[in-house]
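Holo model, guanosine-5'-diphosphate. Inputs:
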Amino acid sequence: MSVKIALVGRPNVGKSTLFNRLVGKRLALVDDTPGVTRDRREGEARLGDLSFTVVDTPGLEEAPEAALEGRMRKQTDIALAEAAACLFLIDARAGVTPLDKTFASILRASGKPVILLANKAEGSAGDAGLYDAYGLGVGEPLAISAEHGEGMAELYNLLEPFL
Ligand code: GDP
Ligand code: MG
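Output:
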């Protein structure tokens, strides 16, 4: 069984896009607890010569606003439970949101190593969000573009120590 790395962050930051980039077609659906982790996915990720298990957290688009935070906490806890480290994504174009700050405090409390990824940073549209991301207090952000495959060599260097 390879080391697990969890993808965490609020909806729409690009977790599933990064999952798909890392896993390609090597997807395995996992047994889910109904109503809690309905579409959580795990897959064997490849990044250069690294291989690891990446755990996605599901979309919560249908959750009522009031229930969103609690459900995200639960699913984040599940994803983190067996993970050696997590990739915490924010949307660099949107900047840091209150929900990102909530995630940052959950992650700080978890004690798991956090690799902060400022996604959607292709071009310069993400520059402001990248600087804001330092304020989350979970370390230095790495600018990436999950969609365009930018920042993957730097991500390799950050992940290698955990694998
Ligand atoms: P998730 O909810 O965190 O899993 O986010 P998704 O992976 O579903 O992505 C949400 C939206 O952001 C989709 O429309 C993606 O195409 C878009 N997206 C993801 N990564 C990037 C990126 O690197 N750059 C840009 N511009 N858009 C992205
Ligand atoms: Mg998703």
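Residues 9, 11-17, 59, 119-120, 122, 145-148 surround guanosine-5'-diphosphate (ligand 1) (CB under 6 Å). The domain at 4-162 is CATH 3.40.50.300 (Rossmann fold).
Archived with the compound record.
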